[in-house]
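Quick entry, no commentary yet.
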Amino acid sequence: MSMTVQGIIARSQGAPVEQVDVVIPDPGPHDVIVRIQACGVCHTDLAYRDGDIEDAFPFLLGHEAAGIVERIGDEVTHVAEGDFVVLNWRAVCGECRACRKGQSHYCFNTHNASQRMTLSDGTELTPALGIGAFAEKTLVHEGQCTKVNPDEDPAAAGLLGCGIMAGLGAAVNTARIARGESVAVFGCGGVGMAAIAGAVLNGASTVIAVDIDDRKLARAQEFGATHTLNNKGLSTEEVASRIADMNGGVGTDVTIDAVGIMPTWQQAFYSRDFAGRMVMVGVPNLTDHVDVPAIDLYSRGGSVSPAWYGDCLPERDFPAYVDLHLQGRFPLGDFVSEKIGLGDIEQAFKTMKAGDVLRSVVVI
C-alpha cells in the first residue's frame, strides 16, 4: 500500500522550495523504502532548483542522506529491514562496458527505483540524483543503499553520499596522492575541504589551500592545510608563482580544482609542477570552455583528469570512511556546520551561497 510523507520540492525554475505531501508507491522487486534520518544541503540541490541541471520539474530535492531501511521489495537481497544505510547515486549495474572492464566507478547504467514518487494529485516527481531525500522517507533501488556502522551520527554519515566523497575521492582515488607529495586545492567549500582532508589522510607533506575568503582559509588550516593563499584579484601567473614560493620553488605534485570556473581551472593547471597531476572536481557550467594553448597542454606533461563522484565505489568507500571517523582518524563530523529542519532549506541555500557553512544538514 502506498504511503504519504512530507517532502521538499522545487516546482519551477528559481521558485522558492515548497514542503508538500509526497506519495511513495509500494516498492518494486528491487526497490526499498528508507526512513530518512539526515540529509545534507548540497549545492547540487540548489542547481536543481535553479534549473541548471535539467528541466524535469518538479524535483524532489535532497541526496546526501542516511537512514534506516523500512520496507523492501520481494527480490531485495542487498539490504534488510532495519539496516542503517547511506544513500548513493552510483548503484553499479555490473553489466555495462565499464563494469565489464573492472571500472565500476565509471558505471554507465546505474540503477534507480523502478517507479516514481508523486504529488498527491499524481504528478510524477524527479528525485534529485535519483534519490530525493529531503523527505521523511524515500524510494530507491537496493543498490543505492550502502550499509555502514550504525554507531555513526546520521548527519555525518549522509555527507559521504555526495560532496564530501567527491572531494575526498578526488584526492585519494583520482589524484592518488602519495606520502610526501605536495598538493594545492583551489576552493575551500565542502568539496575542497574534503580534498584537503583526503590529502592529509594520504600523507601529503605540503597542502596549500587557495580561496578568496580568509574565513575559509582559516578553516582549511583546521582540516590540515599547511599553507594558505588568498587568490582574490591575482593573475594566473601570480598564483602559480606564490604557490611555487611555498613549495621550494616549484609547482605542486598535484592540484585540485574544486570550484569549476575557468579562472581557477587555469590557475590549477599552471600551478602544478612539470609532469604534475591536475584533478577537476568542481563542476563547470554548460557554457564554459577550457582555453589553454595546446603546446602548454603538451609540454607540461602529466595529466588533467576529471573526478566523477571522487571515482568512488560506495560499497568499498563509505564503510571505510565511517570507520575511520569513528576511530578518530578522519574528521567527517567536522563538516556538519549546523543541523536544521525540513522547513529551513530555503534559508540554508542562502547561507550556503554566502559561504557561511560547510554543510547544513536536515535532521528528521
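second:
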Amino acid sequence: MKKLTLSVALLLLVTGCQSAYYATMEKFGVHKREILVDRVEETKDSQQESQKEFQSALDRLTTLINFDGKELQEAYDLLNDDYQASLAAASAVSANIDKVEDVAKALFDEWQDELEQYSSVNLKHESAKQLSQTQRQFERLLRSMRSSEAKMQPVLDSLQDNVLYLKHNLNAQAVSAIKGEFTGLKRDISALIADMNRSIEDSNKFIAEMNARRT
C-alpha cells in the first residue's frame, strides 16, 4: 500500500473515522479493495503470531508439569508472561478481524450503490455477478476467521486458571493439580492452531482471488 504523508496520517489520527479514512485513502489512489486485501494480510500475520504465543505457553506448561524441584517462582513468571503475550496476540487477531469486516462492508455497500450508475445492462449484470461471487467468498473467509477466533477464549480462560492457581500455590502440589488440566488444554491449543491454519489458508486463497482480478 502506498505510504501516507505525515499530513494525511495526522488527518486520519484526528478524524478517527473509518469512512473519513477510506475517503482520504481513495484520494491517494488506494481503494477499499486494496485496503481489504491489506487487512486480510494483517489478520493472517496476527493469527500466525498468536499461534506462536499459544504454542509457547503450551511448551512452558509442558516444562512446568515436569517440575523437578527447582524454583517455581521463575516458572510461574515465565508462564504468566506467555499468558499475557497470548492475551495480547488474541486481542490483535480480534481487532484485525473487525477491521476486515468493516472495510468489506464499506466495499460491498459502495459496489452495490454503483450498480445503479450503469447504463449498460450487460455490464451491470456482470458487475452484479462479480459482487455476489466476491461476497460469497468473503463470507466463507469471515466464517473461517470467526471460527478460529471463537476457540481462543476458552484457551485463554484455561491458561488464566493455571496462572492464577500457580500464583497462590507455588508448590509441587499445585503442579500436580495442573497436570490434571494439561491434557485438555493441550488438545484445545492444538485444535486452535489447526483451526487458525485453515483460516490462514482461506486468507491466502481470498487474497489470490482478489489479486487475480487486478491482472
